[in-house]
């Protein structure tokens, strides 16, 4: 997808690049609005979706949260979702052979496996510390 340059889109991309917490469109909107007071939430959504289509960012829909989160890191990796505070955290794993899950799933499946999405959930350290 070939996109024309847009200062608003560049600001959205720059904001995502600076974050590791997988913000929602609303969070992106409130931040970018500081630089572009007249930007609308619809414009932010449109630009986020264009960046996703261009492969520049990824969109994650975590079932329990019911809202999309955006990630600048497009490399294969897993996520942890805190069931207390809803934080979305990159989950570092030593084993990076993500294709083995696809291969295993495809063994007895007549269709075509093109990838997978998997996330882990539980309670993050911050919430555990607050409870004790």
What does this structure look like?
By secondary structure, the chain is an alpha+beta fold. The protein has 2 domains: about 70 residues, Winged helix-like DNA-binding domain superfamily/Winged helix DNA-binding domain (Arc Repressor Mutant, subunit A); about 60 residues, Dna Ligase, domain 1 (2-Layer Sandwich). It is built from 5 helices and 5 strands. The strands form 2 sheets. It has a 3-stranded mixed β-sheet with strand order 4-3-5, with no helix packed on it. A two-stranded antiparallel ribbon has the order 1-2. The radius of gyration is 17 Å and the shape is globular. The relative contact order is 0.14.
Keywords:
alpha+beta; 132 residues; Arc Repressor Mutant, subunit A; Dna Ligase, domain 1; 5 helices; globular; single chain; 3-stranded mixed β-sheet
SSE layout:
Elements: H1 7-17, H2 25-32, H3 41-53, E1 58-61, E2 68-71, E3 78-82, E4 88-91, H4 99-106, E5 119-122, H5 125-131
Helix pairs in contact: 1-2, 1-3, 2-3
Largest sheet: 3 strands, mixed
In CATH, the homologous superfamily of the largest domain goes by the name: Winged helix-like DNA-binding domain superfamily/Winged helix DNA-binding domain
Mean pLDDT: 90
Corresponding CATH architecture of the largest domain: Orthogonal Bundle
List unreliable stretches of 5+ residues. none
Q: Residue share in helices? A: 25-40%
Strand content: 15-25%
> According to CATH, what is the topology of the largest domain?
Arc Repressor Mutant, subunit A
| Global Rg | 17 Å
CATH class of the largest domain: Mainly Alpha
Class from secondary-structure proportions: alpha+beta
